[in-house]
What does this fold into?
Amino acid sequence: MNEDEILRRLEPNYEDLTANEITDLIKKKATSEERAFLERKKEEKMRLAIQAEELIKQGRLNRALEMLNFALSLGTYGNEYPLGLLGDLYLKRGDKKKALEMYKKSGTIDSLKKARKLE
It folds into this structure.
């Protein structure tokens, strides 16, 4: 079992969903075994995202970008927070277009509010 197989079983076109929609899908349709499998990587992503958030506050944007990209490389599930932080990072860099893209990919209420402000 791998993440792609699980997500494809739950929603064949999962690539078209926001990170928040994927989390909702998992909560509603995945088996407890599948959720447990997916949660392991999500925990690692959260640890990395929290560290990246601190780096963003310190202005260490390049290192934060590396950490967030690594977190995202771990899989698709649980990317709301890292994507939202990427939006914040790109906004700090002055790249409003990329920030907007990341906020929309995140799909959380907070990220979507930030996206509306940029539009």
Observations:
- The mean pLDDT is 96.
- Residues 3-118 form a domain with the Serine Threonine Protein Phosphatase 5, Tetratricopeptide repeat fold (CATH 1.25.40).
- The chain has seven helices and no strands.
